[in-house]
Amino acid sequence: MNPDLNRLQPYPFEKLNALKATVTPPASLSHIALSIGEPKHTSPDFVKQVLMDNIDKLSNYPTTKGLPELRESIALWLSHRFHLGQDGVDPERQVLPVNGTREALFSFAQAVIDRSEKPLVISPNPFYQIYEGAAYLAGAEPYFLPCLPENGFIPDFSAVADDVWERCQLLFLCSPGNPTGAVIDSDILKDLIELADRFDFIIASDECYSELYRDENNPPAGLLQACAEMGRRDFRRCVVFHSLSKRSNLPGLRSGFIAGDDQVLSRFLLYRTYHGCAMPVQHQLASAAAWSDEQHVKTNRTLYRAKFDAVLDILGDCMNVSRPDAGFYLWPETPINDTDFAVQLFAQQHMTVLPGQYISREVNGFNPGENRVRMALVAPLQECIDGALRIKTFINGL
């Protein structure tokens, strides 16, 4: 077996299940889960209709490159959403459909890392655990940058030494951040692009939460947008990952895309052709419909704003918690250790949140996720309100 498999840590929810197994929650209370970032809003009816109308496409093999109409709908959306100008994105060379960002983020590292060079993969900390696993299985070492409140939960890239950048082959960004909701602004993105040129590494920007933002008039910037503002029409060394899971409440469709540097994408397409991970044709057609509509996305944002308003109104006077710029998570401090908080909350209130240390790593004796929990406001509004009230009761009883 591949010895690097032994370097993988259990997934956060495995750790959480083991933690919860030590206690019995009150049967009189229904379970409220704010631990998993699985959207619960209704999937768009028109997307489901396209899927059903094309179910006979099950008899067709899909191509790895994807249907032209899907790539064109993605390119149009990208160009409009991120102000990429008249030239925009080339759907033929600069867009590649993928089966959700999780699959693509992991496989991308396998394709681009040269394991003979003692490579580093740099990522935020806390982070989406796929970044770490992708690094290990590609033969690289992960290098974690803490996301701290004093820096707006954005990594301090200026503190990274040149010898680290020299070994870096892949930089994972997550903007808006999971779990912090922090958005990396365009100036920082431009600085990172210049670093990528100087030290010859690829930037992989995970932007799957980009459409869940607080201010309707101020959507988060993206990596390709920063490239366009620099006049960098080839998006050299830059790729972005997007998904319909959060944007359109379609996690079960397993549909997303990667876009950017065509030289990188052409090699990744070769890898994926052997990988055998083409998106089903009916999913591609449904995805094209989803990327072509914005009204359902605006409705989605409105629903999340209402939940943030209600939950923060309840928790604001009992926790150190703030509204994020984007995403659907809260990242509050806990009055006691985060794992103790999570297990006692489950034991007393039959409610699940995710300990912050389960999605972060200790570096030099410090874990930036410790004494925080991640709360995903994905449940219906009333369930989120009930959960916030249970948390407040629990904290007041400590």
UniProtKB/TrEMBL annotation:
Residues 32-375 form the Aminotransferase class I/classII large domain. Its cofactor is pyridoxal 5'-phosphate. The lineage of its organism: Bacteria, Pseudomonadati, Pseudomonadota, Gammaproteobacteria, Cellvibrionales. Keywords: Aminotransferase, Transferase. This is Aminotransferase class I/classII large domain-containing protein. InterPro entries: Aminotransferase_I/II_large, DapC_beta/gammaproteobac, LL-DAP_aminotransferase, PyrdxlP-dep_Trfase, PyrdxlP-dep_Trfase_major, PyrdxlP-dep_Trfase_small. One of its GO terms (molecular function) is succinyldiaminopimelate transaminase activity. The keyword Protease does not apply. PANTHER family: AMINO ACID AMINOTRANSFERASE (PTHR42832), L-GLUTAMINE--4-(METHYLSULFANYL)-2-OXOBUTANOATE AMINOTRANSFERASE (PTHR42832:SF3). It comes from the Bacteria. It comes from marine gamma proteobacterium HTCC2143. GO terms for biological process: lysine biosynthetic process via diaminopimelate.
